[in-house]
Amino acid sequence: MSEMLDAEIAPKLAVELGLKLDEYDKIVEILGRRPSVTELYMYSLMWSEHCSYKHSRKALKMLPTTGEHVLQGPGENAGVISVGDGWAVAFKMESHNHPSAIEPYQGAATGVGGIIRDIFTMGARPIASLDSLRFGTLDKARQRYLFEGSVAGIGGYGNCLGVPTVGGEVYFDEAYEGNCLINAMSIGIMREENLTRATASGVGNLIVLIGSTTGRDGIGGASTLASQEFDEKAEDKRPSVQVGDPFEEKLLIEACLELLDAKLLVALGDLGAAGLTSSASEMASRGGVGLDIDVTKVPQREENMKAFEIMVSESQERMLAVVEPEKLEAAQAVCAKWGLRSTVIGKVTDTGHFVVREGDTVVADMPASTLADDAPMYDPAMERPAYLDDVQSFDPRIVMLPSDDELGDTLLKLLASPNICSRRWIWEQYDHQVMLNTVVLPGSDAAVLRIKGTNRAIAVSTDCNGRYCYLDPYLGAQIAFAEAARNVACAGGRPVAITDCLNFGNPEKPEVFWTFYESVRGLSDACKAFNVPVISGNVSFYNESFGQPIYPTPTVGLVGLLQNVSRHTTTGFKDEGDVIILLGDTRNELGGSELLKLIDGSVAGMPPSIDLWREQQVCEAVIGCIEMGVVKSAHDCSEGGLGVTLAECCIAGDIGATAVLEGRMRPAVSLFSESQGRIVVTATVDDATVVTLMADRLRIPYEIIGQVGGDSLSIKDMLDVPVSELREAHEPTLERLVHGE
Amino acid sequence: MARFDIYVTYKSGIFDPPGATAERALQNLGYTEVSSVKIGKFIQLKVADGTSIERVAEMCGKLLANPVIEEYRIEPVEEA
Amino acid sequence: MARFDIYVTYKSGIFDPPGATAERALQNLGYTEVSSVKIGKFIQLKVADGTSIERVAEMCGKLLANPVIEEYRIEPVEEA
Amino acid sequence: MRFGVVIFPGSNCEQDVIHAARYLGFEAAYIWHGDTELSGFDAIVLPGGFSYGDYIRCGAVARFSPVMAEVVRFAEAGGPVMGICNGFQILTEAHLLPGALLRNVGLKFICHGQPVRVEDSACQWLDLPGGTVLDIPVNHNEGNYICDADTLARLKGNGQVVLRYCESDGSVLPGSAPNGALDNIAGICNERGNVFGLMPHPERMVDPLCSGTDGVPFFTTIVKCLAEV
Ligand SMILES: Nc1ncnc2c1ncn2[C@@H]1O[C@H](COP(=O)(O)OP(=O)(O)O)[C@@H](O)[C@H]1O
Ligand SMILES: [Mg+2]
């Protein structure tokens, strides 16, 4: 074993690389000797939070992961569900928060690149992406820079690939000022029989590296960027910025799918965090085999790279394949056709050991499974955060609500507020149509993608209101799920499975870990109530800056299924005379609401209550009516409440409405309370009775609140605002904010 | 009227996909003698007389270059 | 190993959006002394020894610049 | 009638063009950029996308693909060629069409529905009456058409301007071009009218399930035109 470390240095280096001393001891115990430099680097990355989930794995066991549709649950590069007729859909969401905080364009771009590789690694053709974003408020130049850069990067990468970005979400709040969140979700489609797993097998088979050259970029990326808190030292971490090459990735997609179609590969894996080390060791441990790799065979971008640098480099756009010797020539021909490098760098062995050579000297030799599976698992201490008592004890009812003659202005202010205003400025920078599957474009509750060659479609949405999670992580996580489900239901999709991206602060702080645990518990209960499993996900910890954790942000990416693609709905009101029906009931719930933030500047109170059973019934009712073809438009109530929902329906449909809101509540409450479980649908006078019958049958409270028509939104005794004014408030805000106006 | 020429290039170690693509394209066109192509920015700046090079460096740091991945060189130009 | 630096700029009269935008942005940032910004390409070429400047010009005419809108200048560079 | 759709490395709208053509009942097949056999194709489409990543300049590298020499021959022999978006950029780089496409004035990629006005032109791919307004999405970062004054005069004089960005009522205003294109030019053809380049994506407006059908004439007209000769 070369470059063995002496007893002095080894533990020091280990700590420098982010390992704890007892973790270092465990490595020595595994090896029965001190590690070499290369081994230490490999363990430090594989045992980092980012790769090992050592703080989160136990809590994640709470989540349901099985169901009739599930072909592949968590554990592979992406989860896969069956959608009928032999078609399967793969999807996953992942964070690229810390790289984006350093270089927004490249950070966000490589985030998209990484999640898309996870999809086609499974044998699926990527057909859509969504992006879930969080920034500080845009009155700060740095935040505008991060926001503009991230959006440009997501578009720059996805547009070049020809994978449409069809949806997402964005929130602006001081809580994210020092630590923006860039979560990207990607979705792919395949024939069930093409499902491929990253499992190495077949002693003597060849390990082939496909794609880009290997440089020093991203070295230490996974550990230094994803597993350390952010602070002023962020600057020092800059050298490890990775630059994405979407063109190379496009070639990889085409070549890899062609290789899999032709059955030329035994296994395929992508190189993500911790590069060659993680993809190779995970492949080996899944297959229970060993690997023998020679780093001098790896095509290098920079001069005299060290073995450990090659093993942990995070150069983008690289894939690792296992190929039978007799198929090598054919496989390399496919790569060459697409103008891609493909290099044999090693072979599969029966030793169970991961051996790394530099020419003929062995620089690392460890049991492969110990890298991927033997990281220590922790049971972090938990403690309910002290702040909760203060914020929850706040009673919004003491706040001076807008008077009856201010309601119109208040609605306009809400429509123009950063967290509610139109997101058009974002999605128009994304190609959201390429591949001709996007049946419902951005601007409705969920995007709808048809599945060519079938009569079916999927509906997708990402959601999470971090304020609710801050005020009550358990409820907040349930609401995140419920909103995603409502959004998908509003398009006509029946929820099938979710992916999640759990963004939290430092899990070693008991108060932070408590919010993590409660969020996972909430998500788990919501999944069980809807009988919808989690098939993939990602945990991003250490989202803090200057010691302050971000809001707990468990983002949910939900995929629903439409049996008949022509039976889908959109947000906008359609025709004069259609009846407007509100499903679900409204309570006095202004805690954590946009109205409270607007008039009081505070984020406080209890978030809206949620009845998961009722939520599920409301979704069922809407889906059922859409399947029967009796609903013309559907839009749920979220931020800004019923008032904002009605306004958005008018703007999207470019037609007015008249409504009467009965009930004992203050007008401002009926308009802007953010009670959950509510969906506004429209139907013709005849069909309206079908909708109300359905509601009765499912014992869902409903109210016929008015009808579509005219050119203003007029709510009796409350407000009367021309649709043009609503649009003027809703549309231009984001662009103005970006320009610092 | 003073003039400055600014040369913006990637820091060493930062990958330059357009350069790599140009390199391959030239070789495919038969220019096999090409061994490397790096593509950066060439910025010609016209400013009021007396503008200091420090001031221009400031503009580069703030807007004309991305200090995270790029470095720049500034050259005052004598007007012909 | 020989080196050439290539400067690709827009022909006069061709409006260059990035340049114009940078110009405005700098002025908004308070750099009112800025009167014009032109953004072109700075290409660093490494080629086999003995490669003639004519040969490099050929590469520019064919691929590295578009004669319809751009002009270029080539400078041989003495290796340090 | 058989459309040939060229795949360059980095093309990404080729399957959409094929889908549109077949949806309308026409035959359509891919042509690999390395191939040099165009016999058996009646019309060639260079699809949208990011050939060679749009590196150096959009279309600069693709223009040298082996297939392009054949496309040039095909065009010079009067064969109909349509370049959509990146395809348009490739046609200008290959000098089959005059001018060039620069970065959008807003410096942003743009993807949205876009009203365009049909001009009276010699274009074999479109014979709608001048003034017709179509809604065809744009989807590009470099769609800012430019050419010198003489060329512009020639384009106008010869009826080579095929499409111009406009308002939904058909009026062509200075601000109507989302990318700053000279004279609001969205599409042009060569003098003969067989080579056509445009930034908007007609293939996205053929299948009614996705957005609309204003793109249909861009496929049916050439078929009619070829049937007549
Ligand atoms: N970052 C984004 N990228 C792409 N589309 C987005 C983004 N943010 C919001 N959208 C789109 O804007 C529309 C409204 O978003 P949002 O207000 O989050 O809807 P909802 O409140 O129903 O979840 C949706 O169609 C959504 O997909
Ligand atoms: Mg919604």
Task: Give a quick summary of the entry.
With 741 residues, chain A is of the alpha+beta class. Chain A is built from 27 helices and 28 strands. The A-D interface holds A 152, 155-156, 159-162, 245-248, 250-251, 338-339, 427-439, 441, 450, 452, 565-566 and D 9-13, 15-16, 19-20, 48-50, 52-55, 108-112, 137, 139, 141, 201, 203-204, 207, 209-211.
Mean pLDDT score of chain A? 94
Compounds present?
Answer: adenosine-5'-diphosphate, magnesium ion
Q: For the record, give the distance between the C-alpha atoms at the N and C termini of chain B, rounded to a whole number.
A: 12 Å
Secondary-structure content class of chain A: alpha+beta
Percent helix of chain B: 25-40%
**Radius of gyration of chain A from CA coordinates:** 26 Å
- Can you tell me the overall shape of chain B? elongated
Strand content of chain A: 15-25%
Characterise the protein shown here.
The complex is a heterotetramer, with one copy of chain A (741 residues), two copies of chain B (80 residues) and one copy of chain D (229 residues). Chain A is α+β, with helices and mostly antiparallel strands and 741 residues long. Chain A is 37% helix and 23% strand. Chain A has a seven-stranded mixed beta sheet. Chain B has two helices and three strands. In chain D, strands 2-1-3-4-13-12-11-7-8 form a nine-stranded mixed beta sheet, sandwiched between helices. Chain D has a two-stranded antiparallel ribbon with strand order 5-10. In chain D, strands 6-9 form a two-stranded antiparallel sheet. Chain D is of the alpha/beta class. In chain D, strand 3, helix 2 and strand 4 (81-84) form a beta-alpha-beta unit. At the A-D interface, helix 8 and helix 10 of A face helix 1 and strand 6 of D. The structure holds adenosine-5'-diphosphate (ADP) and magnesium ion. Magnesium ion (MG) binds at residues 445, 487, 636, 638 of chain A.
Comma- or semicolon-separated keywords:
heterotetramer, A: 741 residues, alpha+beta, seven-stranded mixed beta sheet, 27 helices, 37% helix, globular, D: 229 residues, alpha/beta, 5 helices, 13 strands, binds adenosine-5'-diphosphate
Any chance you could write out the topology, listing elements then pairs?
The complex is a heterotetramer, with 1 copy of chain A (about 750 residues), 2 copies of chain B (about 80 residues) and 1 copy of chain D (about 230 residues).
Chain A: H1 9-16, H2 21-31, H3 37-46, H4 49-52, H5 57-60, E1 70-72, E2 79-84, E3 87-95, H6 97-102, H7 104-121, E4 125-135, H8 141-161, E5 165-172, E6 181-191, E7 206-211, H9 221-226, H10 246-261, E8 267-270, H11 275-287, E9 290-294, H12 307-312, E10 318-323, H13 328-337, E11 342-349, E12 353-358, E13 361-367, H14 368-373, H15 387-393, H16 407-415, H17 424-427, E14 438-440, E15 447-450, E16 457-463, H18 466-471, H19 473-491, E17 494-503, H20 510-530, E18 534-540, E19 544-545, E20 548-549, E21 553-562, E22 579-583, H21 594-600, H22 612-628, E23 633-636, H23 641-653, E24 657-659, H24 667-672, E25 679-683, H25 685-697, E26 702-708, E27 712-715, E28 719-722, H26 723-730, H27 733-738
Parallel strand pairs in A: 4-5, 9-12, 17-18, 24-27
Antiparallel strand pairs in A: 1-2, 2-3, 3-6, 4-6, 7-10, 7-11, 8-10, 9-11, 12-13, 14-15, 15-16, 16-21, 17-21, 19-20, 22-25, 22-26, 23-25, 24-26, 27-28
Helix pairs in contact in A: 7-8, 7-10, 8-10, 10-13, 16-26, 19-20, 19-22, 22-25, 23-26
Chain B: E1 2-10, H1 17-28, E2 34-47, H2 53-64, E3 70-77
Chain D: E1 2-7, H1 14-23, E2 27-32, E3 43-46, H2 66-76, E4 81-84, H3 86-93, E5 100-102, E6 110-112, E7 115-118, E8 133-135, E9 138-140, E10 144-146, H4 149-157, E11 161-165, E12 185-189, E13 195-198, H5 217-228
Parallel strand pairs in D: 1-2, 1-3, 3-4, 4-13
Antiparallel strand pairs in D: 5-10, 6-9, 7-8, 7-11, 11-12, 12-13
Bound molecules: adenosine-5'-diphosphate (ADP) and magnesium ion.
Adenosine-5'-diphosphate binds near residues 444 and 638 of chain A.
